[in-house]
Protein backbone atom coordinates (compact mmCIF):
# COMPACT_ATOMS: atom_id res chain seq x y z
CA UNK A 1 0.00 0.00 0.00
CA UNK A 2 2.86 2.37 0.88
CA UNK A 3 4.39 2.08 -2.64
CA UNK A 4 1.12 3.36 -4.17
CA UNK A 5 1.69 6.89 -2.90
CA UNK A 6 5.31 7.33 -4.01
CA UNK A 7 6.34 9.38 -7.05
CA UNK A 8 8.01 6.75 -9.21
CA UNK A 9 8.84 8.81 -12.35
CA UNK A 10 10.15 12.26 -13.37
CA UNK A 11 8.89 15.11 -11.13
CA UNK A 12 6.94 16.89 -13.92
CA UNK A 13 4.70 15.53 -16.64
CA UNK A 14 3.15 17.19 -19.69
CA UNK A 15 -0.45 16.06 -20.34
CA UNK A 16 -3.41 16.99 -22.51
CA UNK A 17 -6.67 17.89 -20.76
CA UNK A 18 -10.14 17.32 -22.25
CA UNK A 19 -13.52 17.35 -20.58
CA UNK A 20 -17.17 16.49 -20.98
CA UNK A 21 -18.09 20.18 -20.61
CA UNK A 22 -16.38 21.79 -23.58
CA UNK A 23 -14.84 21.06 -26.97
CA UNK A 24 -11.35 22.47 -26.50
CA UNK A 25 -8.19 20.71 -25.35
CA UNK A 26 -5.53 22.22 -23.08
CA UNK A 27 -1.92 21.15 -22.77
CA UNK A 28 -0.42 21.64 -19.30
CA UNK A 29 2.58 20.59 -17.23
CA UNK A 30 1.95 19.28 -13.71
CA UNK A 31 3.97 18.21 -10.67
CA UNK A 32 3.68 14.48 -10.11
CA UNK A 33 3.94 15.18 -6.37
CA UNK A 34 0.39 16.60 -6.33
CA UNK A 35 -2.31 14.52 -4.73
CA UNK A 36 -5.26 13.84 -7.01
CA UNK A 37 -7.39 16.03 -4.73
CA UNK A 38 -5.02 18.99 -5.19
CA UNK A 39 -4.77 18.23 -8.91
CA UNK A 40 -8.54 18.73 -9.18
CA UNK A 41 -8.81 21.85 -7.03
CA UNK A 42 -8.38 25.55 -7.86
CA UNK A 43 -8.02 26.98 -4.36
CA UNK A 44 -5.20 29.30 -3.26
CA UNK A 45 -2.93 30.07 -6.23
CA UNK A 46 -3.59 26.84 -8.09
CA UNK A 47 -4.72 28.62 -11.24
CA UNK A 48 -3.72 25.76 -13.51
CA UNK A 49 -5.71 23.02 -11.82
CA UNK A 50 -8.59 21.16 -13.38
CA UNK A 51 -11.48 23.17 -11.91
CA UNK A 52 -10.30 26.34 -13.66
CA UNK A 53 -9.15 24.61 -16.84
CA UNK A 54 -12.39 22.73 -17.49
CA UNK A 55 -15.11 24.37 -15.37
CA UNK A 56 -15.90 21.03 -13.74
CA UNK A 57 -16.51 20.94 -9.98
CA UNK A 58 -13.85 19.34 -7.81
CA UNK A 59 -16.39 17.32 -5.81
CA UNK A 60 -18.22 15.84 -8.81
CA UNK A 61 -15.49 15.34 -11.42
CA UNK A 62 -14.03 11.97 -12.34
CA UNK A 63 -10.71 11.49 -14.15
CA UNK A 64 -9.60 8.92 -16.72
CA UNK A 65 -6.17 8.59 -18.33
CA UNK A 66 -5.77 7.70 -22.03
CA UNK A 67 -2.51 6.92 -23.85
CA UNK A 68 -1.39 8.48 -27.16
CA UNK A 69 -3.53 5.92 -29.03
CA UNK A 70 -6.59 6.94 -26.98
CA UNK A 71 -6.61 3.64 -25.13
CA UNK A 72 -7.85 3.79 -21.53
CA UNK A 73 -4.92 3.39 -19.12
CA UNK A 74 -6.44 3.96 -15.69
CA UNK A 75 -8.80 6.05 -13.57
CA UNK A 76 -7.48 8.61 -11.09
CA UNK A 77 -9.96 7.57 -8.42
CA UNK A 78 -8.07 8.12 -5.14
CA UNK A 79 -7.93 11.77 -4.07
CA UNK A 80 -5.25 11.05 -1.46
CA UNK A 81 -2.90 9.33 -3.93
CA UNK A 82 -0.12 11.18 -5.74
CA UNK A 83 -0.42 11.88 -9.45
CA UNK A 84 2.98 10.24 -9.92
CA UNK A 85 1.77 6.98 -8.41
CA UNK A 86 -0.44 6.37 -11.45
CA UNK A 87 0.68 5.43 -14.94
CA UNK A 88 0.53 8.95 -16.44
CA UNK A 89 3.21 9.35 -19.11
CA UNK A 90 4.27 12.32 -21.26
CA UNK A 91 1.53 13.56 -23.63
CA UNK A 92 -1.09 11.22 -22.21
CA UNK A 93 -4.62 12.63 -22.15
CA UNK A 94 -6.61 13.10 -18.94
CA UNK A 95 -10.35 13.31 -19.56
CA UNK A 96 -12.48 15.11 -16.97
CA UNK A 97 -16.12 14.08 -16.65
CA UNK A 98 -18.67 16.06 -14.63
CA UNK A 99 -22.22 14.79 -15.01
CA UNK A 100 -23.58 17.59 -12.82
CA UNK A 101 -23.09 20.09 -15.66
CA UNK A 102 -24.06 20.21 -19.34
CA UNK A 103 -21.80 20.08 -22.40
CA UNK A 104 -21.08 23.60 -23.69
CA UNK A 105 -22.46 25.27 -20.57
CA UNK A 106 -19.40 27.52 -20.38
CA UNK A 107 -19.14 28.17 -24.12
CA UNK A 108 -22.65 29.56 -24.81
CA UNK A 109 -22.21 33.33 -24.46
CA UNK A 110 -25.87 33.95 -25.32
CA UNK A 111 -26.73 33.03 -21.74
CA UNK A 112 -24.37 35.63 -20.28
CA UNK A 113 -26.23 38.69 -19.06
CA UNK A 114 -24.85 41.79 -20.75
CA UNK A 115 -24.34 45.05 -18.88
CA UNK A 116 -25.56 48.00 -20.94
CA UNK A 117 -25.77 51.74 -20.26
CA UNK A 118 -28.23 54.08 -21.88
CA UNK A 119 -26.83 57.02 -23.84
CA UNK A 120 -28.03 59.39 -21.10
CA UNK A 121 -26.41 57.38 -18.29
CA UNK A 122 -23.15 57.04 -20.22
CA UNK A 123 -23.02 60.81 -20.79
CA UNK A 124 -23.28 61.43 -17.04
CA UNK A 125 -20.26 59.27 -16.15
CA UNK A 126 -17.01 61.02 -15.26
CA UNK A 127 -14.81 57.94 -15.72
CA UNK A 128 -15.67 57.14 -19.35
CA UNK A 129 -13.57 57.52 -22.49
CA UNK A 130 -16.04 60.12 -23.74
CA UNK A 131 -15.64 62.14 -20.54
CA UNK A 132 -11.85 62.04 -20.88
CA UNK A 133 -11.96 63.18 -24.52
CA UNK A 134 -14.39 65.98 -23.72
CA UNK A 135 -12.38 67.19 -20.73
CA UNK A 136 -9.15 67.27 -22.73
CA UNK A 137 -10.73 68.41 -26.01
CA UNK A 138 -9.37 65.47 -27.97
CA UNK A 139 -10.45 63.74 -31.17
CA UNK A 140 -13.92 64.62 -32.40
CA UNK A 141 -14.49 66.79 -29.33
CA UNK A 142 -11.81 69.25 -30.43
CA UNK A 143 -13.79 71.66 -32.63
CA UNK A 144 -10.69 73.48 -33.86
CA UNK A 145 -8.94 70.26 -34.83
CA UNK A 146 -12.06 68.91 -36.53
CA UNK A 147 -12.43 72.13 -38.51
CA UNK A 148 -8.80 71.88 -39.61
CA UNK A 149 -9.23 68.27 -40.71
CA UNK A 150 -12.38 69.15 -42.64
CA UNK A 151 -10.61 72.00 -44.44
CA UNK A 152 -7.69 69.73 -45.34
CA UNK A 153 -10.09 67.10 -46.67
CA UNK A 154 -11.94 69.64 -48.80
CA UNK A 155 -8.66 71.05 -50.14
CA UNK A 156 -7.47 67.57 -51.15
CA UNK A 157 -10.80 66.82 -52.80
CA UNK A 158 -10.57 70.08 -54.77
CA UNK A 159 -7.04 69.26 -55.97
CA UNK A 160 -8.13 65.74 -56.92
CA UNK A 161 -11.14 67.06 -58.83
CA UNK A 162 -9.04 69.61 -60.74
CA UNK A 163 -6.48 66.95 -61.65
CA UNK A 164 -9.19 64.52 -62.77
CA UNK A 165 -10.62 67.17 -65.10
CA UNK A 166 -7.31 67.20 -67.01
CA UNK A 167 -7.51 63.46 -67.69
CA UNK A 168 -9.73 62.36 -70.56
CA UNK A 169 -10.80 58.92 -71.70
CA UNK A 170 -8.72 57.72 -74.66
CA UNK A 171 -5.56 59.61 -73.62
CA UNK A 172 -2.20 57.91 -73.29
CA UNK A 173 -1.00 57.99 -69.71
CA UNK A 174 1.78 57.01 -67.34
CA UNK A 175 1.01 55.77 -63.82
CA UNK A 176 3.62 56.36 -61.14
CA UNK A 177 2.87 54.92 -57.69
CA UNK A 178 5.61 55.00 -55.06
CA UNK A 179 7.19 51.59 -54.59
CA UNK A 180 5.80 50.21 -57.86
CA UNK A 181 7.12 50.01 -61.41
CA UNK A 182 6.13 52.76 -63.86
CA UNK A 183 3.24 51.61 -66.04
CA UNK A 184 1.89 53.05 -69.30
CA UNK A 185 -1.43 52.58 -70.95
CA UNK A 186 -4.68 54.15 -72.10
CA UNK A 187 -7.19 55.97 -69.92
CA UNK A 188 -10.47 54.06 -70.05
CA UNK A 189 -12.48 55.58 -67.21
CA UNK A 190 -12.47 58.69 -64.98
CA UNK A 191 -14.87 59.10 -62.08
CA UNK A 192 -16.17 57.59 -58.87
CA UNK A 193 -16.14 53.85 -58.12
CA UNK A 194 -18.16 51.67 -55.77
CA UNK A 195 -15.22 50.11 -53.93
CA UNK A 196 -13.39 53.27 -52.74
CA UNK A 197 -14.21 56.90 -52.01
CA UNK A 198 -13.04 59.78 -54.18
CA UNK A 199 -12.18 59.90 -57.87
CA UNK A 200 -10.27 57.19 -59.74
CA UNK A 201 -8.72 56.66 -63.16
CA UNK A 202 -9.28 53.31 -64.89
CA UNK A 203 -6.35 52.33 -67.11
CA UNK A 204 -5.82 49.60 -69.68
CA UNK A 205 -2.09 48.92 -69.39
CA UNK A 206 0.16 48.05 -72.33
CA UNK A 207 1.39 44.95 -70.50
CA UNK A 208 -0.31 42.55 -68.04
CA UNK A 209 0.77 44.64 -65.05
CA UNK A 210 -2.72 45.28 -63.66
CA UNK A 211 -5.03 43.44 -61.31
CA UNK A 212 -8.29 43.03 -63.23
CA UNK A 213 -10.10 43.22 -66.57
CA UNK A 214 -11.81 46.55 -65.96
CA UNK A 215 -14.34 45.15 -63.51
CA UNK A 216 -14.26 44.83 -59.72
CA UNK A 217 -16.78 43.09 -57.47
CA UNK A 218 -19.08 42.30 -60.38
CA UNK A 219 -19.28 45.92 -61.61
CA UNK A 220 -17.66 46.71 -64.97
CA UNK A 221 -16.11 50.09 -65.65
CA UNK A 222 -14.34 49.30 -68.95
CA UNK A 223 -13.25 46.39 -71.14
CA UNK A 224 -9.73 44.93 -71.35
CA UNK A 225 -7.99 41.55 -71.05
CA UNK A 226 -7.50 40.12 -67.57
CA UNK A 227 -4.47 41.57 -65.70
CA UNK A 228 -4.33 44.54 -68.10
CA UNK A 229 -6.73 46.68 -66.07
CA UNK A 230 -6.15 48.80 -63.01
CA UNK A 231 -7.30 51.88 -61.10
CA UNK A 232 -5.14 54.74 -59.85
CA UNK A 233 -5.70 58.04 -58.08
CA UNK A 234 -5.61 61.06 -60.41
CA UNK A 235 -2.53 62.35 -58.54
CA UNK A 236 -0.54 59.32 -59.74
CA UNK A 237 -1.67 59.53 -63.36
CA UNK A 238 -0.10 61.79 -65.99
CA UNK A 239 -1.47 62.08 -69.53
CA UNK A 240 0.71 62.85 -72.51
CA UNK A 241 2.50 61.41 -75.52
CA UNK A 242 3.73 58.23 -73.84
CA UNK A 243 4.70 55.52 -76.35
CA UNK A 244 4.54 51.89 -75.30
CA UNK A 245 7.54 50.65 -73.32
CA UNK A 246 9.41 47.89 -75.11
CA UNK A 247 10.11 45.54 -72.23
CA UNK A 248 11.90 43.04 -74.48
CA UNK A 249 14.51 45.67 -75.41
CA UNK A 250 14.95 46.55 -71.74
CA UNK A 251 15.66 42.91 -70.89
CA UNK A 252 18.27 42.68 -73.68
TrEMBL record:
**Entry annotated with the keyword ATP-binding:** no
The reply to whether Coiled coil figures as a keyword in the UniProt entry is yes
Gene Ontology CC, one term: microtubule plus-end
Species the sequence originates in: Homarus americanus (American lobster)
Report the superkingdom from the record: Eukaryota
Query: Where does this polypeptide localize?
Result: Cytoplasm
Record's keyword terms, sorted:
Chaperone, Coiled coil, Cytoplasm
The CAP-Gly domain is annotated at 191-233
Per the UniProt entry, the signal peptide is none
One BP annotation, GO? post-chaperonin tubulin folding pathway
**Which family would the database say this protein is a member of?**
Belongs to the TBCB family.
UniProt cross-references to InterPro entries, sorted A to Z: CAP-Gly_dom_sf, CAP-Gly_domain, TBCB_Ubl, Ubiquitin-like_dom, Ubiquitin-like_domsf
What is this protein called in UniProt?
Answer: Tubulin-folding cofactor B-like
User: Which gene is transcribed and translated to give this protein?
Assistant: TBCB-L
Note the coiled coil stretches, chain numbering. 134-169
Q: Which PANTHER family match?
A: DYNACTIN 1-RELATED MICROTUBULE-BINDING (PTHR18916), TUBULIN-FOLDING COFACTOR B (PTHR18916:SF85)
- Location, primary (coarse class): cytoplasm
A GO molecular function for this record? alpha-tubulin binding
Looking up Gene3D superfamilies in the UniProt record yields: CAP Gly-rich-like domain (2.30.30.190), Phosphatidylinositol 3-kinase Catalytic Subunit, Chain A, domain 1 (3.10.20.90)
Amino acid sequence: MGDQYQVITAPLVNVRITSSLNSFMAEKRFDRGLTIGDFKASYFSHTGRLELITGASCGSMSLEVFDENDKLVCALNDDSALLGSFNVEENYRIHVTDNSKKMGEFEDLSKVEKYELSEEEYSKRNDSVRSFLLKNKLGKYNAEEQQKLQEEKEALEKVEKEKAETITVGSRCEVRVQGEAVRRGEVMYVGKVHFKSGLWVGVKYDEPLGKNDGSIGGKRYFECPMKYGGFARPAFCEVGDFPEINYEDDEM
